[in-house]
Fold this sequence. Notes:
Strand content of chain B: under 5%
Distance between the termini of chain C: 66 Å
Distance between the termini of chain B: 51 Å
Number of strands of chain C: 24
Order of helices and strands of chain C: EEEEEEEEEEEEEEEEEEEEEEEEH
Oligomer: heterotrimer
Amino acid sequence: xEHSALIALTTIPGPxxxxxxxxxxxxxxxxxxxRAFERLYREHVARIHSLMRRMISADEAAEVxxxxxxxxxxxxxxxxxxxxxxxxxxxxAINVALTRRAQLGRRRDRMDDDPETLEKLETKPRHxxxxxxxxxxxxxxxxxxxxxxVLHDIxxxxxxxxxxxxxxxxxxxxxxxxxxxxxxxxxLGREWESHE
Amino acid sequence: MSxxxxxxxxxxxxGELATAEHAELERHLLTCAECARDLDxxxxxxxxxxxxxxxxxxxxxxxxxxxxxxxxxxxxxxxxRFELPSxxxxxxPQAVAAGxxxxxxxxxxxxxxLHQMSAPxxxxxxxxxxxxxxxxxxxxxxxxxxxxxxxxxxLREGTAPATSSAAAVAMTGALDDPTYDQAIAELENTLAAxxxxxxxxxxxxxxxxxxxxxxxxxxxxxxxxxxxxxxxxHQHLALQMKAxxxxxxxxxxxxxxxx
Amino acid sequence: MSMLAAAVVxxxxxxxxxxxxxxxxxxxxxxxxNFSGGVSVSTWDKNAVxxxxxxxxxxxxxxxxxxxxxxxxxxxxxxxxxxxxxxITMPSWMGIEVxxxxxxxxxxxxxxxxxxETVKGDVSVNGGNGVLELNTVQGDIALAxxxxxIKLNTxxxxxxxxxxxxxxxxxxxxxxxxxxDVQLDALESSSVSGDLWFNGALKSDGRYHLQSHNGDIxxxxxxxxxxxxxxxxxxxxxxxxxxxxxTGTNGHREMQFTLGEGGPRLELESFSGNIRxxxxxxxxxxxxxxxxxxxxxxxxxxxTPKPPKxxxxxxxxxxxxxxxxxxxxx
Lengths: 196, 259, 330
């Protein structure tokens, strides 16, 4: 079931430019050109896959990324170039991720915001690849904080937009963001020592 | 340890505090080392987030995507109004005896029901939408497809086969007809139009299972081509084709119900 | 029916809890519609229905009693409903119908009709008497202690049955089916690539048809079985723990034989899977294996309702075994 709130978004900040012209590949793909679609896939898969990994899980990211591209192909017929292809694709990805989250919501343990969960998070950063450690720390955030952090700090949505997507009050979004950042600061790297 | 201001630090960082509050927090930062340190950490987190690299999946997903979109026609075409070809008939008593019933659904699709027992299987289950409901008259049709005697199986010893061979042959002959293909095509078309209404994991599961059934149909067809007189193979192929129709019908009903 | 003439609406704007009980008259039915979450039903002797629900924000639960049916619905105030978990207690005589795409359903203690329709949800019913129809696409179905006209259908999940009487139809595409300790008048069991396992009494005028494309079929027979059996396969193997003498074969991979005095008709067909006729010692081995897979016992009589659940959300499709080249040994 499509997440209807997404359709209300009209502006999405982010690195993609806001130019309305359709890229040649998007235009070709919309008319059924599979090779053009493959080029679009290669151009955007890293970003979509990372988004899925951060919003859902590492285990499911590959599978859900496939779903996103298949869904994009199906909907390309209705893509009119009103936004850059990457932006349009990104909306689809967010939509898929949120719908999946809504379905999985019935597994109550996934929505665990229990303070004890926070205690289980590592307080000392591991040695090694610092950005991997940071990514893993994001994956271990409590669900609500993680969604907001990914959408705000990584993907660049505003709290108003996030409130609309996640169906929470703007204040809740701000509180969750702050909470996520406060947890994650312990995983910045060796130069930041844990104070716990 | 936290004070009144520590919870507002993120808002301050993002420039979301009202002017007066912003000024107050700024004054507070001059005197509170802990808040200043926290603010710095938060800034680093936000910067790190912005700079996170994107990584694609370990394996190339394109082959799987390509397979899936190949199965997903984005064509939209109007099917010609469905009419049974004039040569394609069964008499009702023969149909019942053979355990085969053809039912017209909404006057357009054909839902093939195969059943070996004397009592026919219940037709399309009442699903979550009206698509599965049978409307229109049950067809009464007269066959002139009679299997040649050579195709009758010969038993080594006199025990009747579990299947009705004549009916099986006649029916799979009918299944090679445009009849079945048209029913499948219409269902696939409806499904394609509504596919986006289904959640993606259900779409994936349905596609996987359609692929399983298609493989089974293909294997059964090839086996039948090698042994065209086998009543079992006729019936088995018919059952797999029915399974495909049923899966498509059910999925289409689901998609339409969730739309 | 309850004194309420109009719909009872529980409108909540924040996460909430509902707990209300309505009286019902004998013969009334219950219909529950829930988009996502769980519906857990148990029974009591009172002529009343208790509906307790936990739900998140922006969802409401409506109870709508009509003279014949009590309808319970989850509705979203904006768009789709959120997750709702229901705990319902109803009279054991009451017929119930539950539907919803992402809802797990379990019903314990019913002595009436049970119908469930879901897409991505598991269904577990312990009890039921009359018309039982359980449909899911991705989920597993577990049924125990039931009697009547039973139809089960799943696409990608497993079907596990125990202590069933009546007429049974089971269909799966990619799921296995286990039918343990059943006493059926008639059976139609079919799958495309799932295995079928049957251990049950065979009635003298009964007809039992198990068919699959590439799934294996195992049938456990009593020690001195009486049955007329036909076996059909294209490239699978047939093995029997019992001595069999073929009474008929039509030269096209169908074989018939009779065990004991004949009577019940057993038709086993698998295009490329293996078909086995087993002695009763096989039952314990299967039950042990099922316990090992799930950590829980195979379904027992009504007091212990847990079904074996294999936790696969997207079960990899079983690759059909390529058919062996046709041989003409028959």
